[in-house]
Amino acid sequence: MENEIYAVKEQALKDYSKKRYQQAIDGFKHCLQFFQENGDELSIAEMQNNLCVTYVQMKNGTEALAFVQGTEKVFAAHGDKKKQAMALSNTAAALEVLHRNDEALDLYQQALDIFKEVGEKEMRTSVLRRVADLQLRSKRELQAVASMEAVYDQGNDHSLKDTFFRTFLKNIRKMITKQN
Predict the structure, then answer these.
(1) Contact at 8 Å (CB) between 68 and 96?
(2) Whole-model pTM?
(3) How many helices (H) and strands (E) does the chain have?
(4) CA distances from 170 to 18, 124, 133, 135 (A)
(5) Which domain holds residue 70?
(6) Has residue 171 been placed in a domain?
(7) CA–CA gap between residue 35 and residue 105 (Å, rounded)
(8) By 3-state DSSP, what share of the chain in percent is helix, strand and coil, each rounded to 5?
(9) Number of domains in the chain
């Protein structure tokens, strides 16, 4: 039965990647039920996060939030800081869909701090981009520019394009601060 459930999980992940979200949800829920019946706390939290991400893609923040809330505590209790940060980011994404932007920004910041602590640059960069986008939509231009500068400062790519964008962002920040 355990091999079968992992096959269902893999199929659900494939369905998600092919944007067949309802099939992915059905698969993740099937796995969730199995893990709940077997008391596998970490796998339960993982499935709840998978469901959250899928519901976020469907713009259903209520369902996303219902599944993901509290999962960061499960990962923290098991010492998995990376998944803890991912769960915080997923919770923030659900809050973002619900237009609870201040709460989302707070959780994204917590996730950024943990990603920095564990040296997870790629995920940190991804979250920084989300933060900058949310800050722009929330009319926090200066903060958004600072977040984007952090994205470029984080990267190892020193291409001409990145150098241009870094310089461009610094000039925008200077213009904004002069206006205020």
Answers:
(1) no
(2) 0.79
(3) 10, 0
(4) 38, 21, 17, 17
(5) 2-139
(6) no
(7) 31
(8) 85, 0, 15
(9) 1
